[in-house]
Specification:
Strand order of the largest sheet: 1-2
Number of domains: 1
CATH superfamily: Amino acid/polyamine transporter I
Protein name: Amino acid permease/ SLC12A domain-containing protein
Membrane topology: Multi-pass membrane protein
Radius of gyration: 24 Å
Distance between the termini: 41 Å
CATH class: Mainly Alpha
Number of strands: 4
Helix content: 55-70%
Order of helices and strands: EEHHHHHHHHHHHHHHHEHHE
CATH architecture: Up-down Bundle
Subcellular location: Membrane
Structural class: mainly alpha
Pfam families: AA_permease (PF00324)
Keywords: Amino-acid transport, Membrane, Transmembrane, Transmembrane helix, Transport
Number of helices: 17
């Protein structure tokens, strides 16, 4: 690897700690299920020099063993990352919504309907929603106990294996960096809807400058801008839901629709194969597509390290984000299935602008002719909002990697506003790869880059659930009960196990169409991200000689919120 990373478990990292709880000097009794202590054996304690208390209503953050508090509660060995806690709960909500609702929903829902039919499409989105819930609440337990910027790789490194955190963190960062280039390119294609001769390169350059500059603003101002950009998307979807209900009830040119298209052409559609096999293939294809559509909701965890009072704002943001996205997606998919038949030829168009949106197709069939321009404007807002989130999330992942000693420490450098200036610069530079799409050969390279980013979200979701299982095991071995967590979710650890298994299954099968029939190019395009993940993991393990982190050596101190008041349950 040749970077010369320091060990992620240095002076304040692993080892056998002795801890005293925040409120008194007695040990925290282990849970009844803790297997690590016999009846005659005292539970493991920590010996942290400072833990969280309540002073003037403010939560204090546990420090590392050298006794120095970190700015904003992000504790690292040596110098701390000076990120500022300027994000409120509503900022976290809209950052996640902005990263989730994009062209994948506005345009991709049409192809989903054509592959699986209205019922198959709806079931797929609901099912993936349950997987998202398992990931969100699992992440929430860790993010409120140890809130850190770019939480995913840090948790995998601390609780499972440094090589796992390294591979997942760098792959996840790349996915957001390259998606920034995609968002900039998509903005040019959308603008060409109004003027086909407009140069996409000019659009890429203008918006690259704008959104790179926006990400150098103080995080509170960034959060406000993202909130307003995302609000336009939410308002549009809510407006479509109201419009869809009215059209289904008989307001449109086609009269009362009801479940007409569920009867003909039917609730399920066959994809690739005929009959029942084709219907299952269609359902599974949309299951994978829905997984990609939901990705971005986990950005609540990325912003936890910059959230004000994370023990309160993060759980609320998780609940609001999950239920908000679920409602918007599921309600819209349900109504699209009522308004547009799954065999409508408009669903199969290759266009990247409003003409390919099922929202526009539904409006056109209802006799509304002015909607395409409105939807195209919303699509532009959607990709610009996504571009804004891409740079933010990617830069914070770099900070997390640097915090864990898996990237250059220069990525932790911040300005007076707490913005990680180098991390933002490196992440935003990848947006310039959007210019590759201006040539045919470059476009092929760019497509491969996008294939890498597509499955990175599934890997991140699966790794988050695996990290939680390591986190839970470490708590039990070290004598900490889940009662000390500021936020607890239901049915753990089974919720995390469900999320882990489901995401691994989808990640392994997402390229199944390359086998029907066999196509070598499609196979590598589908699985290049998994191959790269294994290469990163194995390469780091060979160079650093890392092993699985023993539960008794897991660092549960650094950056920890130990105030136990106001605990929230899912």
């Amino acid at each position: 690897m040749g970077i010369g990373f320091r060990s992620p478990f240095g002076a304040g990292g692993g080892g056998n700690h002795q801890e005293k709880p925040a409120q008194d000097n007695t040990s925290i009794p282990p849970s009844s299920s803790t297997p690590s202590h016999s009846d005659n054996e005292a539970p493991t304690k920590y010996n942290e020099k400072s833990s969280a208390t309540q002073e003037n209503g403010q939560t204090q953050i546990a420090t590392a063993t050298d006794g120095h508090p970190a700015a904003g509660g992000v504790i690292v060995e040596g110098d701390a990352t000076q990120l500022q806690r300027g994000l409120s709960g509503r900022h976290l909500n809209f950052i996640a919504i902005g990263g989730t609702i994009g062209t994948g929903f506005f345009l991709g829902s049409g192809t989903a309907l054509s592959k699986a039919g209205p019922a198959g499409c709806l079931i797929s989105y609901v099912f993936v929603g349950t997987i998202l819930w398992s990931v969100m609440v699992t992440l929430g337990e860790m993010a409120t106990f140890i809130p850190t910027a770019g939480a995913f790789s840090a948790y995998a490194t601390r609780f499972v294996d440094p090589s796992l955190g390294f591979a997942m963190g760098w792959l996840y960062w790349f996915s957001w960096a390259i998606t920034y280039a995609l968002s900039l390119t998509a903005s040019g294609l959308i603008i060409q809807y109004w003027n086909a001769d407009f140069n996409i390169g000019i659009i890429i350059a203008i918006f690259w400058v704008v959104f790179t500059a926006v990400n150098y603003l103080p995080v509170r101002m960034y959060g406000e801008l993202e909130m307003w950009l995302s609000s336009l998307k939410v308002i549009t979807i809510v407006g479509f839901i109201i419009f869809g209900i009215c059209v289904a009830a008989g307001v449109g040119a086609e009269g009362t629709l009801g479940f007409r298209y569920w009867r003909d052409p039917g609730p399920f559609a066959a994809y690739i194969e005929e009959g029942g096999t084709g219907m299952f293939v269609g359902f599974w294809a949309v299951l994978i597509q829905a997984s990609f559509a939901y990705q971005g909701a986990e950005l609540v965890g990325v912003g936890a390290g910059e959230a004000r009072d994370p023990r309160k704002t993060v759980p609320r943001a998780i609940r609001t984000t999950f239920w908000g996205i679920m409602f918007l997606f599921v309600a819209s998919i349900f109504l699209i299935g009522m308004l547009v038949p799954s065999d409508d030829p408009g669903l199969l168009t290759e266009s990247s602008n409003a003409s390919a949106s099922p929202l526009v197709i539904a409006a056109t069939r209802a006799g509304v002719r002015v909607l395409p321009d409105i939807i195209n404007a919303v699509l532009l807002t959607a990709v610009l909002s996504a571009a804004n989130s891409n740079v933010y999330s990617g830069s914070r992942i770099l900070v997390a990697l640097a915090d864990e000693g898996q990237a250059w420490s220069v990525f932790k450098k911040t300005d007076k506003n707490g913005t990680p200036v180098v991390a933002v610069a490196v992440t935003s530079a990848f947006g310039l790869l959007g210019f590759l799409n201006l040539s045919s050969d470059g476009g092929k390279v760019f497509t491969w880059f996008l294939n890498i980013s597509g499955v990175a979200g599934l890997i991140t979701w699966a790794t988050t659930c695996l990290a939680y299982l390591g986190f839970l095991r470490a708590m039990r071995v070290q004598g900490l009960d889940r009662d000390v967590l500021p936020y607890r979710s239901m049915w753990q650890p089974y919720t995390a196990i469900y999320g882990l298994c489901a995401n691994v299954l989808i990640a392994l099968t997402q390229g199944f169409t390359s086998f029907m029939p066999w196509n070598t190019a499609d196979f590598f395009a589908a699985y290049i991200s998994l191959i790269l993940f294994v290469i990163l993991w194995a390469g780091h393990k060979l160079v650093r000689r890392t092993g699985l982190v023993k539960p008794e050596d897991v660092d549960l101190v650094r950056g920890r919120l130990t105030c136990e008041s106001d605990r929230e349950e899912a």
